[in-house]
Records
---
Amino acid sequence: MIEFNHVSKTYHQRKVIDDLNFAVKEGENFILLGTSGCGKTTTLKMINRLVSPDTGTVRLDGEDIAGQHVEQLRRRIGYVLQHSSLFPHYTVAENIAVVPRLLGWAKPKIDERSRQLAAKLRLPESCLPGYPGRLSGGEAQRVNLARALAADPPLLLMDEPFGALDTITRAAIRREFLDLDELKAKTIMMVTHDVQEAFELGDTICLMDAGRVMQTGSPAELLFRPANAFVRDFLSGAYTQLIYTVVHLSDLWSWLQQDSDGQDSGNIFSGKNTVWDAITAVPDKNDRTLRLRIRHEASEKSVSLEGLLTALNHYQKNR
Amino acid sequence: MQEQPTLWAFMQQQSDKLLDQTLQHIGLTFISLLIAVLIGLPLGIAIARKEKLSGVVLGFAGILQTIPSIALLGFMIPLFGIGPKPAIIALFLYALLPVIRNTYTGIRGVDPNIREAAQGLGMSSRQSLFKVELPLAMPVILAGIRTATVINVGVATLAAYIAAGGLGEFIFGGISLNNTKMILAGAIPAALLALLFDFLLSRLQRLRLKKTKAVVLPLICLLTLSSFYMLPAMYHKGLLAGFTPEFMGRQDGYPGLRQYYGLNIRTVVISDAVMYQAAFEKQLDVISGYSTDGRIKAFDLVTLADDKGIFPPYYAAPIVRQAVLDQYPELEGTLEKLAGQINDSMMTELNYRADHEHQSPERIAADFLRSRGLWRPSREGHKGTIRIGSKIFAEQYILVSMYSMLIKGYTDLDVATKTGLGGTKICFDALTNGQLDLYPEYTGTGLLVMLQPDAKTVSRFTANKDTLYHFVKQAFQQRYQIRWLSPIGFNNAYALMMRREQAKALGISRISDLVRNLR
């Protein structure tokens, strides 16, 4: 869907983007990861032409975006900024309606869409006539997302969308975010500096440093087959935790032992779930009696948290 | 002294005038403000977008702001004449900086994230400006307009100097008449206007002006308020008079004209420095002047006869300390050589040569004395020194030159002149304190300024120049031991003047004719 071909950009004699090449597939969650100043935000802004490349081309659906009408291009692309980008002089409803209005939608259609989005994003309808100043950080970010989604664009660009939130809210919103149907069909390109976030949300991660791509690949590829020392060092700090997010329960199936006694969890996990999904679902990590029900290829096992971690150990030894 | 009414009574008595002035004041303030907004707002927006220009534009507007307001008005006169036009332009220039600067600051102050969001969502540069940046900058812009309004209400008081009206008319009239109530009658409403507009604009600022559409409302208010300036002009038609602030307030000025002649004419207040020229340029039809002023001739004006005799006579005569006359008996006869020598038109001619042709007073004096056969070369005597003073206008300089030539030519006395003394009070105090020996004075001034009798006494003397002269002469001799010598002949009284052709066309030669013409 998106293609970068030999894209470079120089600011004040400093090359901020250096020969960038990558492709984003339709429906993919593509994460641009890196430290601040690595050029990831600049890369993102090249897609909606807030920044234009000095050399190289950016193609959207096969067409060079440089030749397109810039406002119309932007109206087709959802854009979520980090924080405080809601228009403070517009009500929440008016904020959500910005792009549909620019596109000239009829008022009933806009109203219906706003209510629908508010419901999907679990925004109380009562907050729609109010001003953004009264919203909590989490609510504001949901409105921000609703504004980007309002005209149902196939592509969503997100620049550190959860950056301004505290850790707890952030984890909760991320979880909701993964579950939103509204987003499932969309191509999402997101910028973050948070490795955990990148690994949780990304189908493909593009790790950047000093304007260059260090490695593009799935989370597991980056973690287990780092292309160079930079990738390895970048991920090593959070290595243990990242494992939980890249290893799926199906990977552990052969090492998982049925626990004979204990209480079964309410929800059933599938092989597609990650170890992290299973662990976070256990409310009290000290409760040894709880068993997680895991179903994989028509069979089911009930495993304690301890048993799950033991299986993960075996998996790593044998990998 | 005349009894003065209380401030409230004064304001009630003058309520018509006060209303006119207040409306004019509001009009002046807001017309200029409107222009400043119409020009400053787009300019502020332009420099917020093109950062490079901001230094030049803000610097230029800043320099305008540093020009003292009275000087700025002064610069306007040669360019735009007198009246509302130059006043509005000067006020507009003053209002410009706060409007431009606050527009610039307000737009630059919009959170860059929000500007980027507007852009990123697909708003055009224009949509972003009108839907996002301007509404968000509005509180700051309104603060600038508020500052400009308060500045303008204050500076607009100066507009009275150049016949643009407003509350400054009372203020300047009050200052030149030393009438505190009159000053307050102008100053208090001006201060109240400033407070009122400041308050109203602060309310406007607090309203959520979220849509640019809402800006239209204040603009309509501005337009309405601007049009106030036209109101007084709409219900007064006909000839326009320009009077000095002093004339507007003196009993022997406009109030007297109203009382005795029933004169009711549209008036503006103007400083006497530009008054004659304004009449010449047809910006004014009737002005108050001094009957021997040289500019009457220069600008081809005629004085209207005071057929009811309300202007007290201002016959000029030298006034001398009795002690000096006693010490040098030859002095009196010498000074009396000028008695009855110069009539009104001759004095006007002499003043014209000084005011308009810029000849030196000495030359004018010598020429005149020669033509009368009075001139003699100096005897270079050293018997003693006579100190002669003069006030600060051409007529006095010429008279002093004549006296000093006469004294040097006919006696063995020497002369020291002290010219350009700031006013009647200074000359007179110097004379009574023995620092001056003589100077030319006017009978009317002697009566009204030095003797200050009650209103009844004044009216008794306005009719007859001789009774006034004798009254003044006697009173000075008794009170101050100062002698009034014989009058020189001319009467430099207040007078109403018009352009010669207009007066002729309308058949006006007396004040009564003017009154009849206005009915």
---
Amino acid sequence: MDTKPFVVLQDVAKRWNGQLGVEEISLDIDEGSFVALLGPSGCGKSTTLRLLAGLEIPDEGQILIEGRDVTTSAASARNLSMVFQSYALFPHLSVAENVIFGLKVRGVPRAERREKMARALEITGLGGLEHRKPSELSGGQRQRVALARAIVAGQRLCLMDEPLSNLDAKLRNSVRKDIKKLQRDLGITVVYVTHDQTEAMSLADKIVLMREGRIQQIGSPDDLYNRPANTFVAEFVGAPPMALIEPGIVEDLSPGRTLGIRAENVEIAKKGKGRLSCIVSEAEFLGNETLIGLEHKGVRGLTVMKPGLSLVPVGERVEVTFNNQDLHVFDEVGRRVSEQLTEK
Amino acid sequence: MNKRVNLERRRQAIYGWLLLSPAAVMLSIFAFYPSAATFWSSLFSRGTRRRPSEFIALENYSDLFADPTFWVVLKNNLLYAAVTIPVSIVIALAMALWANSKIPARGFVRTAYFTPTVLPMIAAANLWLFFYTPGLGVLDQIGGLFGLPSINWLGQPQTALWAVIIVTIWKEAGFFMIFYLAALQTIPEDLKEASDIEGASRWTYTRRIVLPLLMPTTLFIMVNATINSVKLIDHLFILTKGGPSDASKLILYYIWEMAFAFFDAPHAAAMTILVLGVLCIVAAVQLFFIDRRTHYQ
């Protein structure tokens, strides 16, 4: 019984007028884990979250929370909280009233309410802002009010729908750390929707990568980065993403297979010593390193990382080399093949 | 340098006045001047061929206060306002909430509710005249099916004012509903979802979230309904002409009668000034006191 996962989605599907929503979503979530639903926009990650929240009812499949079938239960009966992309704060209520709205609705006594609110505001660093209206807060503060509202009731499952997408880059980093710390300190289970793979990689214990309503891969950040299940995952995860080499471009290592290679495994070689001869298409200085984009027929997204500032003029021809053991191999439909290539 | 700043400031001031002037001119010609002129003429006596009009200060006003009809009309109008304002607001809100929810034939429902607003008041009054007519009217016909006696709704003092009130509510509610519908569209869907997740019932959501967010609209509608309760008298001309025995006479109708049936312009002017004063006070109360407790997005 103990080994049963906290949240289970089983073959869940949701369609709108025959159009694809999500299909065959099967997912186990352990208690206390941080799960990120990742994917490009329109991939069904928000739909999956809304199905879990009870804001949509699935056409097929089953949803279990704490072993209880909640497939058709109302949102309020699922014992979860949610942070919305737009924060969904009640604009006419003060910070304090927003935070304790749910407690009030559920009939929690006044003294307990006050105590819980004080704690939630302290955790989220909102002390002293109790009487402000949401319109008098900055974006980051509003975001924290939404967080405080989500944690005040002490629900063990918290859903977050792109909570950082309305913040500027700098704030996003600091709030990201706050969210992670919060999740760890409170020991709550978080399901987090994002389209930003860095966010997912840095936050999640488990990433669910989706595309066109279907799950592409479920795994740890390490799995997704180092063992992508298919070419879509390979190209979605990582900055810069993995380069894909069509069959027959590199001397026939593995006929009919597409090869993948990450930028950090590619090196610039001396003239005549490289395995591919490419043309520099762009050079991007990032401070601690320089990304050099390369063009070659039949190769997508090939990039070399060089430490520090080392710009190469665009249009120059360079040769690159890599080790066979760093290559990822995909079959003709893009699925990963676990065969190892021999050392060159 | 200083000169240029001054010049610029003057240019800005002229620009501001130019933007302001069309409205100022129109309001002055059609609102401020007539009001002032009305006040001025309310201070003079009614001139006849033998006795020319002369300045009598507030005598017209004291005449009014001594006139029993004035008090009857005032009482009628207060009852008319006290019933039509809240009832039409509540009905408008209920209709809007219903027409905004996910119901079949939503477009039809909205159109149906809005139809009375599109009709001219005179046409609506004629329609209702047909409903109320004793014997022939729809109400009597339906009542007849259940064996109820024929009632002359517009012809007896106990029911005449109420019959007029119902027509007004029927006319106004659909109009106010449109404002509520528009305001409901501006409430984001995710507030409902957030309150769902917090476990709020539909009623709690409506009471704690929707109604407060509709307050600016309610305020606007209240001001409008108040003004309408004085302004809207077209149907009286068709339905009752203020009768029987002044039972359904409203203040503006009485002013009209005073001025154009009894040709007593000074008393009509005095009454107009009183109405204007009361409306100003009511509008000020609504805008300053309720406004302060209203949340604007």
